[in-house]
Amino acid sequence: MKKNEIYEGIVSGYGTEGEGIISLNGTTAFVPFCLIGEKLSFKVLKTDGKIAYGKAEKIIDASEKRVAPPCPVFGKCGGCALQHMKYEEQLEFKRQTVLTALKKIGGIDFPVSKTVPCDSEYRYRNKLALPIGVADGQTVCGFYGARSHRIVPVKDCLIQSDWVGAVISAVTKFSKERGVPAYDESTGKGVLRRIVVREIRGKFIIALVVARNVDTEFLIKELEKSFGDFTFLLNINSSRGNTLFSDRWQLRRGSGYFDAEECGIRYKAGANTFLQVNDDVRAKLYERVLAEADEGAVVVDLYSGGGMLTAMLAKKCGFAYGVEIVEEASRCADELKEANGLQGKMLNICGKVEEKIDEVLQSSAGKKRIIVCDPPRKGMERSAVKAVAEAEAEKIVLVSCNPATLARDLGIIVGTLRDDGGSLVKVSAPQSRWNIECVIPFDMFPQTKWCETLVVLSRK
Measured at the alpha carbon of residue 77, what is the angle toward residues 73 and 80, in degrees to the nearest 5? Predict the structure, then answer.
């Protein structure tokens, strides 16, 4: 295939980002926003040996699984990749993505369960983190285009809750009528950088991120027209990097946090508190994790964050360790322990998992033990994976937001991958102390390529 040429082909499969795969004359082309079985013409934008990347020009024979995307900036905004798919096809795509990653990356041949759906295909997010920038000389709110920091202006976002339009309107009016300019990443000039909103049971935490101090009275009054119970914070972030928040906070309205409850656990939530963005699927996922935690067991919760799941596990099982590297999150976990009367049932340890895991495993030796791991997108450190694989535990429960790193870590645990001088090689006849019991994707992020996956392993 040649760059800028037009070709016709039939989609035979999906790539990891939901793009269609078309094979022609020994070259494999990846073309976004098309479906398996569709015939289309496409323009080649880039080539790399036997790989090409294209753009759909015309859908000649459309799939019955195609729907009209309801968002006016779908295909421009880098957030959603699957709005052109019927929801049932999205769920199957995510199941196949996990299945393929396990086979190709981890060397694991195991059936993947149907993806657990979200009750709402749209309007499911409880958190908004919206960049503010400049377009045609005007302040705009929007989302970054795919693989760029170019802001695509929006007035609404269909995967966010329905209050997002009021937020965008208030911010743009504040900028225009008070002459507060948006921040320009290329020059480092301007003020308004982001608006961050989290909804917790009908209450709102709103944080405005700015490059320098600014009077926010006008913006707060605008927000009061649409929001009742909310607290407002100003975060001054003058760095040239992409860090969401700095450590410079000012409270401008309310208490700065809200008391809340999840699955019987009371907690305080602030602007920087980590919670899954989808309340419905989070509840389904946590319910499934808790179902694997036997009463009377000791739970080792690795990458435990603010301690929400650790507290749930401690309450059910009797004792749980939480290991988390972020100091603020570990402090929140200690507050959670005190607020829920879990002293003596929950111990939070701040540090790197790979450095603390041996200590925790030694402390819980000789007891019925369950290990829960919910690492960041990059997965677990190699030494931590090996420690988990060699631990004397009844079960391992893995939760992952990245099928690729899940497949890698799981392959090491079950022995289908072996560390050969720092490189991983597949093993044809693996020896393992672990059986995979189930692999279940959860659709935490409808309309996007992402999903959460739960894996349960039992000791042989």
Answer: 95
Cβ neighbours of 21 (radius 10 Å): 16
Tokens, residue 405: 């790193």
pLDDT tier, 35 (very low <50, low <70, confident <90, very high otherwise): very high
Give 241-263 pLDDT, tens digit per residue: 888 999 999 999 999 988 888 88
CA angle 268, 272, 273 (to 5 degrees): 40
Q: Which of 245, 175, 174 is nearest to 211 (CA)?
A: 245
Residue 304 in contact with residue 289, Cβ under 8 Å? no
The whole-model pTM stands at: 0.93
Looking at the DSSP bridge assignments, the partners of residue 200 are 203
Known catalytic residue at 401: yes
- In 3D space, the residue among 18, 63, 15 whose CA is nearest the CA of residue 39 turns out to be 63
What separation in angstroms does the CA of 374 have from each of 101, 159, 235, 285, 457? 18, 24, 29, 12, 14
Q: What residues have CB less than 8 Å from 423, skipping those under 6 apart?
A: none
**Burial status of residue 77 (CB atoms within 10 A of its CB: 0-12, 13-18, 19 or more):** buried
Helix axes 403-414, 87-104, angle to 10 degrees: 40
DSSP state at residue 63: -
Of the candidates 350, 401, 438, 451, the residue annotated as catalytic is: 401
